[in-house]
Design brief:
By secondary structure, this protein is mainly alpha-helical. The N terminus is likely disordered. Helix content is about 65%, strand content about 5%. Belongs to the SAT4 family.
Length: about 325
C-alpha cells in the first residue's frame, strides 16, 4: 500500500506510532477552508473590476500550500511523524529530499502571502512616507526570502549533501540549527512588521471610527500568525535539541502549516467579509451608491482616476485598481 503509516519496525511487538494522522488532518482541514476563502476573494475582485498583483500572489500561495500538503503525504511513506527507531535506513535519503523541497516551498508560500498583503497595503495607503515604508518592507521581505531560499538550496557543497548524510559522504553543510533559527527569527520579524504596518494606514481612512476599529480588529488576526510562528520556532527548537527529530518535528511542521494557512486567510479577510454580505442578501454590495461608488462607499468613483486633496497642500491621484481596492476595504464595514 502506498500510504502505510504504520509500517516500519515494530517496537515490543506493537505497530510503530505516528503523528502523521494529526498533521495531515490539520493540514487538509485548513486547506479546504483556505480554498473557499481564496475563491471568495477572487470572486469579489472579479466583481469589483479585475485581478491585480496581490490576487495573483495569493493564488500562487494557495497552490504552493497544496504542494506542501502533497509533499507531507509522500513523506508519510518514508516515516514522517514516526519515532527515529522506526525509520528504515532506505527511507532516509528520500525523506531528506522531500524535506529539502518542502522548506523551499514553505519559503515561497511565506513570501507570496506576505508580499500580497504588502501590495494591498500599498494600494490603500495615501501618505507618501507610508508608501516609502511599504517599499522598504517589500524589499526587506524579498531580500529575506531570497536569502533563506539560497541558503536552503545551496547550503551544502555539493548540493546533494542536503539529503545524502551517510557516514561516507564528504559534503560540507551549514549548521542546520543555525539555519532553522534564522528562518524562524526572520518569519517572526516579518509577521510583526505586517501586524504593525496596516494600523496607521487604517487610522487615516476617511470612514467612521467604528468602522476603523472593526478593520483594525480584523487585521489583528495577524496576531494568530505571529503566535503560530513563535510556537513553530519553539517546537523546532525542541526537535533539534532532542534525539527524536522526526517524531518531535511533526508538531513543528503542523504549526508551520497553521501559520501558512492562517496567513492566507488573513490576507483575504476584507474580500471575504464583502462576499459574506452578498451571500446574506445585501443586494447593494455591487451597486453604485449616490456618489458613484460600489456598495455606496465614500471614497471615489471606480475605473477612473480620482484626485484627493489632503490638508489643503497635497494632491494624490488614485488609479482604478487602487480605488477598487479601497472599495473592497470599505465594503467590509
Amino acid at each position: 500500500m502506498f500510504l502505510n503509516f504504520d509500517s516500519g519496525a515494530p517496537v515490543d511487538g506493537a505497530p510503530s506510532r505516528t503523528r502523521a494522522y494529526l498533521v495531515l488532518g490539520v493540514g487538509f482541514s485548513l486547506h479546504i477552508v483556505t480554498v473557499f476563502i481564496v475563491s471568495a476573494r477572487i470572486m469579489v475582485k472579479v466583481k469589483l473590476g479585475k485581478l491585480v498583483v496581490e490576487d495573483v500572489l495569493i493564488i500562487f500561495a494557495q497552490i504552493v500550500a497544496l504542494s506542501l500538503l502533497i509533499c507531507t503525504v509522500i513523506a508519510c511513506k518514508y516515516g514522517f511523524g514516526k519515532h527515529i527507531i522506526d525509520i528504515a535506513p532506505e527511507w532516509i535519503i528520500p525523506y531528506s529530499k522531500i524535506s529539502y523541497a518542502s522548506i523551499a516551498l514553505a519559503t515561497l508560500c511565506y513570501y507570496s502571502t506576505k508580499a500580497s498583503m504588502l501590495f494591498f497595503y500599498f494600494r490603500i495607503a495615501t501618505e507618501p512616507h507610508v508608501r516609502i515604508i511599504l517599499h522598504l518592507a517589500i524589499a526587506f521581505i524579498t531580500l529575506s526570502s531570497v536569502t533563506i531560499m539560497l541558503i536552503n538550496l545551496f547550503g551544502c557543497t555539493p548540493v546533494s549533501g542536503a539529503w545524502n548524510r551517510r557516514p561516507t559522504d564528504v559534503s560540507v553543510c551549514i549548521t542546520t540549527s543555525a539555519f532553522y533559527y534564522y528562518t524562524s527569527a526572520s518569519n517572526i520579524a516579518t509577521d510583526l512588521l505586517l501586524l504593525v504596518l496596516p494600523i496607521p494606514i487604517l487610522v487615516r481612512l476617511r470612514i467612521q471610527w467604528a468602522a476603523k476599529l472593526g478593520l483594525v480588529a480584523m487585521f489583528s488576526m495577524g496576531f494568530l500568525t505571529t503566535a503560530f510562528s513563535c510556537v513553530s520556532w519553539w517546537s523546532r527548537y525542541i526537535s533539534i535539541q532532542g534525539s527524536d527529530i522526526i517524531w518531535d518535528g511533526a508538531y513543528s511542521w503542523m504549526f508551520t502549516l497553521l501559520e501558512l494557512h492562517v496567513g492566507i486567510m488573513t490576507a483575504c479577510l476584507p474580500a471575504v467579509r464583502l462576499f459574506v454580505k452578498w451571500i446574506w442578501g445585501d443586494k447593494n454590495v455591487w451597486v453604485g451608491g449616490e456618489d458613484g461608488t460600489i456598495g455606496g462607499g465614500g471614497w471615489a468613483r471606480r475605473k477612473m482616476d480620482v484626485k484627493e486633496s489632503g490638508g489643503g497642500s497635497r494632491e494624490y491621484r488614485r488609479s482604478g485598481d487602487e480605488v477598487a481596492s479601497m472599495e473592497m476595504v470599505e465594503g467590509v464595514v
